[in-house]
Amino acid sequence: MYLRQLDITNFRGIKRLSIHFKPNMVLIGENAWGQSSLLSALSLVLNGSDRLYQFVEQDLHFSPQDTQDTQDTQDTQDTQDITLLFCFCEQKQREYRDKHALYRHLLIPHQDGLQRLYLRVSSEKQGDNLTTSYTFLNELGEVVADKNNQKIVQYLIKHYPVYRFRDARLNQAKMAYLPLSWQGDESLKHEFMAVGRLLQYYFLDRQHTADYDVDPTLLWEQLNSLCLRLRQDRSKYIQKQFIQFLSTLFLPQPKNPQAIRPIILFEDLGAHLHPRMVSIVWELSQYLPIQRITTTNSVELISQVNLPDVCRLVRYSDRTVAYRLRHGDMSKEDLRRLTFHIRHNRSLALFSKMWILVEGETEVWVLSELAKLLDINLSAEGIRIVEFAQAGLKPLIKYAKAMGIEWYVLTDGDEAGHKYANVVRELVDELTDSVSNRLTTLPRPDIEHFFYTEGFADVFIKLAHWQDHPHQPRPMRKIIQRAIQRTSKPDLAIALSNEMEKQGVSSIPLLFKRLFSKVLNLSRTQ
Predict the structure, then answer these.
(1) Quick one: 395 and 424 in the same domain?
(2) Which site from 105, 213, 301, 390 is most exposed, i.e. has the minimal number of CB atoms within 10 Å?
C-alpha cells in the first residue's frame, strides 16, 4: 500500500489543495505557493511515532479576507477548520487479503480493483480551544465508528512514516541512530558507510560539521562507485542489502523492517550540492523502491527527471492546484521530443509562469531586447521565451496547459505561420478563452520583413553593406538575407533595439506593445 492522494483544506499556506502522488514525484513552484505547507502536513501527521499530532493555532490558514471584520461569525469559523484527507491505496489487487486484519474492514473497493483506505484528520475551533480528531471514512464519506480507531491510526503512522530531509539538515534525533559499522556483506562496507557519513556531514546541524573528521571528496567517489554496482546488480542483491542498511539509519533496531513503508521527503534537494553530486544522489535514490517526494529549484536536478514525474504547484487566490502530465495527455513521440527540447536544453522553462512561444532564434533575441526597452523584466515576471520549431507547437501548448503554465504564441505571416495559427485555434477553448488572447500573427512573412517595413530598413541596409544602384528599387528580400548572412541573429536584434532606443519607445511597433500587454496580464493571473 502507498499514499495515493492528499486533500488539504485550510492548513497553513494552503486554502484548498488536492494532490495525487506517484512513487517518485518532484514538486516545483514559487516560494509561498504551498510546498512547505504540504510537506509539513505529511511529516506532522505521519510522524512514525505513537503520538498523534494535535493541530495548534499556527496551523490555521488565514487569507486576507479572514482578518476583516464580519457580522457572520459562523462563516469565519467554517473557514478556519482544518481537514487533511489521506487516501492510501493497494499497489496490487487483493494485496491485503490475508493480512492486516486490524483494518481490513476499513478497505473500500474501487472500480480499478485496488482497495482504498481513507483517513481524515480534522480540527474544530470552539472558542479558544482547537480540537483534533482522527477518523476513517467509508465509501459515502461517512465516519466509521471503530473501538480500535486510535490503535489503527497509530499502526498506519508507524508503518508509513515520513522522513523529511530539509535545508541541508536532518533531524538530529534520527541522525543519532546512524550506525558506526556494517555487519552485513563486508564487500559493501565502504560504500554503505560512505552513505552514512555523507548524511552525517551534510544533514547534521552546521555547528557540528566543523568537528567531523571526514574527506567528502573520497566519500562522494565511494557513493559513485555504489551507483555503478547497483546499476550492474541484475540479481538486486546489493539493492536489498542497501535497503536493509538504510532501514537502520531511520529506525533504531526495527522489529519488522520489511513491514515499514517509509515516505522520503527531499526538500530543496540540490540547493547546497554541486551539479555532479546532485546527479549521484539522484541516481542513488532511483534504486530505492520506496515512495519519494522531492522539492527543488535546481535546473540540474530537473534535467534528470522524467517529465511525467514533475508536479507543479500553482497558488491562486482561492486554492492551490497541483499540475502534472497525466496518462494519455501526450503521445510517446511528442513526449520524447518535448523531453529533449525542454528537459535537456531548457529546464529553466519549467520554473516559468508564462511561455512566449516563437518560431525561431531571431524572435527570441528581438523580443528579449524589446522587453528591455519597455522596462519589462522577463525573469522577474516569470516569463520565458521558448522557440518551438524543433519540438513542435502542439506538444508545447499541451504541456503548458497540463502544467498550469500560461502561454502566448507569435507566428510568422507565411504559410507555415498560418498553419501554426490554426494549431492555436484548435487548442483554445472558446468557452473560457479566446484566440486573440493567445495569438499574434505577423502581417509579414517573418519578423525581419516586418521590421523592414515598419521603418527600420536602414538597419538592414547598414548591416548588409548594401550599395544602392541608380534608378533601381531596393530588393527587400535580398537585403534582409545579406544582412543576416553578414552578421548574426543576436547582432541583428541588438541593432534593431539600438535604433528603437535611439528613436524612442514610441518607435516600437504597436503590435509588440499589445503582445507584451497581453502576456503580462496572463502571467499575473498566478
Answers:
(1) yes
(2) 213
